[in-house]
Amino acid sequence: MVRIVNAVRPRLAGAAATARPRVARLVRAVKPQLTRTPGAGTARTWQYTAGAATAGLALAAWVVTAAGPWDANGQRTAERDRAAALERAGGADHDDDSGTGSGTPRPAPSAAAVLTGLGGTAHAADTTGGGKPLADVLGPLLGVPALGGSHAAVVVDTATGKRLYGTGADKALTPASTTKIATAVAALSALGPDHRLTTRAALEPGTKKLVLVGGGDPTLTARKNSDGWAGLRTLATDTAKALRDRGVHDVTLAYDTSLYAGPDLHPIGVNDNLARVSALMADEGRADASTSGPAPRVPDPAAGAARTFADLLGEAGIKTAAPGPGKATGRATTVASVASPPLSALVERMLTDSDNDIAEALARQTAVATGGPADFDGGARAIAAQLTKLGLPTAGSVFHDGSGLNRDDRLTANLLTALLAEAASPARPDLRPVLTGLPVAGFTGTLSGRYTDGAAGVVRAKTGTLTGVNSLAGTVVDRDGRLLAFAFLASDTTNAVEAQAALDATATALAGCGC
């Protein structure tokens, strides 16, 4: 611990000292003003102007720079020094066949550190002096009829771990897509942020049998522009070259999905929000040109990916018969492979877009990494076990999937804030993608169309929506520069739009609070 402190103290102290005067001036400049909400009686909410949001974003960017410098890989020097002090190896690849050797992508650096607060220093909670007590600010907002008959909320200071507010903290409610926060923490801790998922083509010895082996990469794409994700076209091109080099010009094609087990159809049934879960799929089995959100899905993603691969091999001069299911033997030689971006990127995409296909894949990958069966039940058990192993408060929590589509999932606001606080901990840079992947209010992902007149750019949070269920969990930098983790869960809601607005108003009030 002494080595860690000594490694980072000079830069952080300098950044804090340099930033403090500017922080004070900008906080005064963007201090929110109370406005009375029509029809709300004495209830008040904090409202930010567009200029305040812009100033906040600029301030955050300036302080990050001050805490730097940043190296060529986008990793802050301070965090690199801290990692060196910890003498952590990092960059581990957790799959012998992941293709991170010569000619394939190298493991990515850890995600950048998240600043505790705008001033670089921790502020102790003050719920009695100066500002209005937090309970008086949040209580009326959470008690509105739009949030239904049952709700829970927790706010935690990530720097100190102290709970600043709680109501129904240990009440287990349906979390909807905020479940993905738990899935992300479990997968990152079990596999590591640099782990990659590999799709490969294997040739059986003495035969012309080629097997397309699925590695469970839900981001594999057959599009001409792979946009940095693993490309089925690249795999076909490389496979065709390897076969020609061996004098092979026609093959019998099979596809192997044996990495995953059990039913592939989610308990909700056929649904545009999720394809059948398979170790082999291209473009998430989408039957249209979409890249995110609900869409019609093909009935058999693995067979569809194999047919596309066969067509691509044909375009590259390799003849194939119609592909069928099969399994590669241990004697098969890998002739070509493609690897996904590091797990950190998959986690960020899952959280930003609320991607159910990635979530269910990561649940199964967590099960594979921990020796459990890679099915819905096995993935759920693996998530719960991994969180328990981390010492997180899992009492009352029940997992049935990784996406939160299952209405029988149960989480507590206490667990959700604990997950976020763990991801913000300086001791867990491997979990940082959980924070960097959260949608930014008014700018990205599922929050891009929300907070247009609130705390845009200040709140980062995962949304959750099912019929009668609305949730929001994430982080916010409050008026005093503290990084706070919050979780708001509401059940028995009757109007999703009104419930979302109520949750957004509560998060906005938290951002403006100097409580």
TrEMBL record:
Q: Which UniProt keywords apply?
A: Carboxypeptidase, Hydrolase, Protease
Q: Does the keyword Hydrolase apply?
A: yes
Q: Name one GO biological process term.
A: peptidoglycan metabolic process
From the record, give the transmembrane residue ranges: none
Location of the region described as Disordered in the Swiss-Prot/TrEMBL record: 73-111
| Entry GO MF terms | serine-type carboxypeptidase activity
- Tell me the superkingdom of the source: Bacteria
Any Pfam family the entry gives: Peptidase_S13
Basic and acidic residues bias locations:
77-93
The keyword Metal-binding is assigned to this record: no
Similarity-based family: Belongs to the peptidase S13 family.
Name the chain's protein.
Answer: D-alanyl-D-alanine carboxypeptidase/D-alanyl-D-alanine-endopeptidase
